[in-house]
Amino acid sequence: MAKIGMKTPLVEMDGDEMTRVLWRWIKEILIEPYVDLKTEYYDLGLPERDRTEDKVTAESALATKRLGVAVKCATITPNAQRVEEYNLKSMWKSPNGTIRRILDGTVFRAPVLVDGISPYLPGWKKPIVLARHAYGDIYNNVETRADAGDSVYLVVCGKDGKEKSRKLIHGFEGDGIVQGVHNTDDSVKSFARSCFAYALENNLPVWLGAKDTISKTYDHRFKDIFAQIYEEEFKDKFEAAGIYYMYTLIDDVVARIVRSDGGVLWACKNYDGDVMSDMVATAYGSLGMMSSVLVSPDKKYEFEAAHGTVTRHYYKWQKGEETSTNSVATIWAWTGALAKRGELDDIPELTAFAKRLERATVTTIEEGFMTGDLVPLFKKEGVTPHKCESREFLYKIAEKLQ
Ligand code: NAP
Ligand code: MG
Predict the structure, then answer these.
(1) 24 lines ligand 1 (CB under 6 A)
(2) I need a labelling partner for 20 at 20 to 30 A (CA). Which of 185, 218, 236, 387 fits?
(3) Ligand 1: which atom is nearest the Cα of residue 306?
(4) 76 lines ligand 1 (CB under 6 A)
(5) What is the pLDDT along the chain (402 residues), one digit of tens a residue?
(6) CA 378 – CA 242 distance, rounded (Å)
(7) Same domain for 23 and 63?
(8) What is the rounded distance in angstroms from the CA atom of residue 131 to the CA atom of residue 134?
(9) Of 284, 307, 342, the domain-final residue
(10) Nearest ligand, CA 132
(11) Residues pairing with 191 in the sheet
(12) Which ligand 1 atom is the nearest neighbour of the CA of 304?
């Protein structure tokens, strides 16, 4: 059978440790036999980031701006221990952070659902897609300790440096702490646009939660901006598609999410997204089943797995021991990218292949062949789960694909 051709190359961002090992195998076993794969390759593995003084990361993000679709392997974000382990010149920043800054994107995380692996909340029948606003709030904060007797003010100076306003935050009678956070209208606007565009593309309603009753200026701004962008740019399209946008208090959203059967896009402020994405991922079963895509306001896509480089498995693999690392989320990164490329370049066979690979993966698990993380979660009448070694799982999928 002739291989499926491609027009525009994918931006391929290689990564680290166990996911780097899986990366090569996924290409070799599941993609290259069927697709005449075209990629522009960037090695974001830590040694190469160190050698290029992290230029390769920025270059890969710029390539994504140019070509439109990237697929990324998990990468190490170095800490002090990694600086020593890899003898690094510097403690390089998180590649995901760098890429996000350049693309100005929003991260959407969605679980891969399989019959036989039930979420901890059995009512969740459809995926909950979580969108995290990845700018500002406590992640770009300024904070300090205050001593007894200190008065702390919020002071605003205009362009000319002259004081425009001054509000007392607190007059401290005893020792305490204080924090300043910010966000920008532009960032919240692009977050809103990314959420609405993604929802439209995937036919999902959008729920936004914040605490505008308490935070009458700050959180209220999120509510107002979302409402404005929705009214002006999306309302008609949403109504035509039969979906809707809803704002409600964050506590109410949490309650509604728990009661829902899924199938919504949950737009979260930065901290809510950080915390709730871990809860949602865990509730669906395994980190190995959580896919992720960064979408920029000008519709550039970067697909990846939501998990990290699975270090503990890598150290075992290095010693020649057997591993059973779940490759599903990384396969989804590839299928997401290939399907999007097929759609943009009008190659329906490519998109169809990606969907076929997804179905083959799901069927493989549903028939009882899976990695170790899924075995204790799997419950299906008449099917006994069999734990596959990392590479064996990919061969099982390949059999299905044929
Ligand atoms: P992790 O790599 O996600 O792994 C944490 C644990 O979760 C693993 O030890 C494993 O549990 C389980 N797990 C995660 N993915 C799995 C999979 N595909 N199959 C089976 N089990 C899986 O997180 P981490 O250990 O905190 O971080 C490791 C490195 O990844 C760090 O250097 C961090 O900087 C990086 N990281 C990168 C990204 C990214 O590039 N997007 C995201 C997060 C972390 P068991 O050991 O119990 O089997
Ligand atoms: Mg988190």
Answers:
(1) no
(2) 387
(3) 41
(4) yes
(5) 789 999 999 999 999 999 999 999 999 999 999 999 999 999 999 999 999 999 999 999 999 999 999 999 999 999 999 999 999 999 999 999 899 889 888 999 999 999 999 888 989 999 999 999 988 899 888 999 999 999 999 999 999 999 999 999 999 999 999 999 999 999 999 999 999 999 999 999 999 999 999 999 999 999 999 999 999 999 999 999 999 999 999 999 999 999 999 999 999 999 999 889 888 988 988 889 999 999 988 889 999 999 999 999 999 999 999 999 999 999 999 999 999 999 999 999 999 999 999 999 999 999 999 999 999 999 999 999 999 999 999 999 999 998
(6) 35
(7) yes
(8) 9
(9) 284
(10) 2
(11) none
(12) 41
382: left (phi over 0), alpha (psi -120 to 50) or beta: left
Closest ligand (CA of 78): 1
Q: Is the pTM of this model over 0.85?
A: yes
CATH code, domain with 272: 3.40.718.10
What one-letter code names the amino acid at 247?
Y
**Is residue 285 in contact with ligand 1, taking CB distance under 6 Å?**
no
By residue count, the chain amounts to 402
Based on the domain organization, do 253 and 128 belong to the same domain? yes
Question: CB-based burial of residue 350 (10 Å sphere; 0-12 exposed, 13-18 middle, 19+ buried)?
Answer: buried
Choose which residue among 83, 94, 287, 391 to substitute to test ligand 1 binding: the one with the highest number of ligand atoms within 8 A of its C-beta.
Answer: 287
What total number of domains does the chain contain? 3
